[in-house]
Automatic annotation (TrEMBL):
GO molecular function terms attached to this record: alanine racemase activity; pyridoxal phosphate binding
Binding site for substrate: R137, M319
Alanine racemase C-terminal domain boundaries: 250-379
Protein EC: 5.1.1.1
Catalytic activity: L-alanine = D-alanine
Record key words, sorted: Isomerase, Pyridoxal phosphate
Organism placement in taxonomy: Bacteria, Bacillati, Actinomycetota, Actinomycetes, Kitasatosporales
Organism per entry: Streptomyces pacificus
Keyword Isomerase: yes
Protein name: Alanine racemase
Length: 445
């Protein structure tokens, strides 16, 4: 028997889908370089394997929020260009300079700290100046831009800094007709032109996030910074579904049903008894809760595919568990049956967007908040694994009649069997199965 936490719950990360998404995005922004944004553990998908897959598919840059995230990429052996943008005083500037990271500077305090770190390291820091063109969040105010540019140019002349980028971030790119979009683009052009007149010669000028990369070609400049779209999620359902942009969701969240039981009419279900059975029925227990990132706000609403049908969370989502009502004829569902909370939608399962709708939030938040207790199982880590089980012995998931992939062969049960074979018996895994934060746990690997 196989004992692995991933049989309670697991998030499968389809790296073949991620690579295809990166290619689709590059085709959408053909004149720009592509930065795959891998902050916050690659939006919950596992930073290092996702970063490697994005680079393999042609992403030229990686982007993170914090310097610690960027340094973790380096610690994992990932080279190339990495920009990190969320700094606070006393941050690891010296480490960042020595690790050849591109660092964002939004104010004079940050320029002073990075210049000092570069001087101490005897290196030239790669600095990207960020302007606030209207988002009202990070970035240098236009009124302060001249001072920041002058100081950065002086540091460049002194050899401590090289201005590698000029950049900004859009507030309403998911609403293409919003007047702020054109206003931000035109102010960005002005601020870039000013810095260039002052002698800055950036390698990249950039402002586009996923929605802008997908819908606003005039925003692409030299680079697009795509996050959510890399993971196959549409930045906004109003803009279109993932498939409308040639994207496919990368994460599938599954659990094993922990208990199936018949209960009488009038039985309260879960804390507070917000759900009461209308008649005699069969309940199924799904062993995931808000500690795993299942939003409590989706109590009574969140959709789950169990036994071939969509069910709704019955009553409250608890810390570790929730219940679904399988109906009076629910017994064909047994303990160990698969509950698919969300996935690509190709096999009839809900999507992260469906959970976002149920919890009044955005799909970004659904995938990003999946808890650390849920193992991430990375599938198709290498290009040659893209096949569908014809080469028995190549990589995880290709044995045991696995039915995952893009051709609709097989089904969810077959996928479960494939995982069992790959993880427990080590059958033919030459690349290994990556679970959690980077551990390779394939006995046969
Ligand atoms: C997160 C982030 C992105 C990526 O945004 P998506 O909408 O996920 O593509 C780009 N730029 C900055 C500054 C960000 O913080």
């Amino acid at each position: 028997m196989i004992h692995d936490a991933s049989f309670r719950a697991r998030a499968e990360i389809d790296l073949a889908a991620l690579r295809a998404n990166v290619r689709a995005l590059r085709a959408r922004a053909p004149r720009a370089a592509l930065m795959a944004v891998v902050k916050s553990d690659a939006y919950g998908h596992g930073m290092v394997p996702c970063a490697k897959a994005a680079l393999a598919a042609g992403a030229q840059w990686l982007g993170t929020a914090t310097p610690e995230e960027a340094l973790a990429l380096r610690a994992a052996g990932i080279g190339g260009r990495v920009l990190c943008w969320l700094w606070t005083p006393g941050g690891p500037w010296r480490e960042a300079v020595e690790a050849d990271l591109d660092v964002s500077v939004s104010g004079m305090w940050a320029l002073r700290e990075v210049t000092r770190a570069a001087a101490e390291a005897g290196r030239t820091a790669r600095v990207q100046l960020k302007a606030d063109t209207g988002l009202g969040r990070n970035g240098c105010q236009p009124a302060d831009w001249a001072e920041l540019v002058a100081a950065a140019r002086a540091a460049e002349e002194a050899g401590t800094v090289r201005i590698t980028g000029l950049w900004s971030h859009l507030a309403c790119a998911d609403d293409p007709g919003h007047p702020s979009v054109a206003a931000q683009l035109s102010l960005f052009r002005e601020l870039v032109a000013y810095a260039e007149r002052e002698g800055a010669a950036p390698e990249v000028r950039h402002i586009a996030n996923s929605p802008a990369a997908l819908t606003l070609p005039e925003s692409h400049f030299d680079l697009v910074r795509t996050g959510v779209a890399v993971y196959g999620i549409s930045p906004s359902p109003e803009l279109g579904a993932p498939a409308d942009f040639g994207l496919r969701p990368v994460m599938t969240l599954r659990a094993s049903v922990a208990l199936v039981k018949r209960v009488p009419a009038g039985h309260g279900v879960s804390y507070g008894h917000h759900y009461v059975t209308g008649g005699e029925t069969v309940l199924g227990l799904v062993p995931m809760g808000y500690a795993d990132g299942i939003p409590r706000h989706a109590s009574g609403r969140g959709p789950v595919l169990v036994g071939g049908e969509w069910r709704r969370v019955a009553g409250r989502v608890a810390m570790d568990q929730f219940v679904v009502d399988l109906g009076p004829g629910g017994e064909p569902v047994e303990e160990g049956a698969e509950a698919v909370l969300f996935g690509s939608g190709d096999r009839g399962e809900p999507t992260a967007q469906d959970w976002a709708d149920a919890a009044d939030t955005i799909a970004y938040e659904i995938v990003t908040r999946i808890g650390a207790r849920v193992p991430r199982v990375h599938l198709h880590e290498h290009e040659h694994e893209h096949g569908h089980g014809h080469d028995g012995g190549h990589g995880y998931g290709h044995d045991g009649g696995h039915g995952h992939g893009h051709d609709g062969v097989g089904g969810n049960d077959a996928m479960g069997a494939g995982i069992g074979a790959g993880m427990g018996l080590g059958a033919g895994t030459d690349e290994g199965v990556r679970v959690g934060t980077g551990a390779v746990t394939a006995p046969g690997g």
